[in-house]
Amino acid sequence: MAIKGVLFDFSGTLFRIESTRQWLTAVLADTGTEQPGAEVDRLVRELERAGALPGGPPPEAVPAHLAELWATRDESAERHRAAYTGLARKVPLPDPRLYDALYDRHMTPAAWRPYPDAADVLHALQRRGVPVGVISNIGWDLRPIFRAHGLDPAVAAYVLSYEHRIQKPDPELFRRACDALGTDPHDVLMVGDDRTADAGATAVGCAVHFVDHLPVDRRPDGLRPVLALLDRPGAAGA
């Protein structure tokens, strides 16, 4: 296979969301909401169990009244916000305004960190003339995150589920991503952390390489094998 384009997932692949504790304490500080340490600890545990942080731990259980919304949460901005604030509302917070404040926080550049090797790998692909696309199941515009962290110049195209109202693993979203790169799907490598959603790329002929969804400090070089794949005989840039 000659790799002529690479698609990357966003959360858990190129970037990692902050911890639930960092997320909550940042919002409490920004809103001037004071809580004793033991109460913060309790809220962190309950928000994690609820799965209220997008990109964080999944919910232990999705309430029946949110099940349909949860299943299609990445098809629109409205559904995404409603799903995650709905999960957060399982946890009583000291101020009802905190639910939207928490959701808003997760869309800020400060809430995300790129994996240590993300910049090196993206810029190496750019130097080799291999176009890069970002394909994500998401309900908001992640482009400002890439710009804030200096990675936007290395990305040729963004294909976001909420803008197309299609979620991975639907093959159509991968087909549109390959079209955005101007590359035949059989010449594209999909890199992601979700063995179900990202595996949908195989239906259109892409090869798939999986990485582990780990904290940033526990995965310093999980993306570098992508460059090794390009260095195989017959691959682009070899």
Comma- or semicolon-separated keywords:
238 residues, alpha/beta, Rossmann fold, 2 domains, globular, HAD-SF_hydro_IA, HAD-IA family hydrolase, HAD_sf, HAD-like_sf, hydrolase
Q: How does this structure look, described?
A:
By secondary structure, the chain is an alpha/beta fold. 37% of the residues lie in helices and 12% in strands. The protein has a 5-stranded parallel β-sheet. The protein starts with a strand and ends in an 8-residue tail after the last helix. GO terms for molecular function: hydrolase activity. InterPro entries: HAD-like_sf (IPR036412), HAD-SF_hydro_IA (IPR006439), HAD_sf (IPR023214). This is HAD-IA family hydrolase. It comes from Pseudonocardia zijingensis.
- Order of helical and strand elements: EEHHHHHEHEHEHHEEH
Main sheet: which strands, in order across?
5-4-1-6-7
- Secondary structure: number of strands: 7
Task: Count the domains.
Answer: 2
Measured on Cα atoms, how large is the radius of gyration? 19 Å
- Portion in helices: 25-40%
CATH architecture heading of the largest domain: 3-Layer(aba) Sandwich
**Please, how many helices?**
10
Report the top-level CATH class of the largest domain: Alpha Beta
Average residue pLDDT: 96
Strand-residue proportion: 5-15%
Overall outline? globular
InterPro entries: HAD-like_sf, HAD-SF_hydro_IA, HAD_sf
GO molecular function, one term: hydrolase activity
Pfam families: Hydrolase
Protein name: HAD-IA family hydrolase
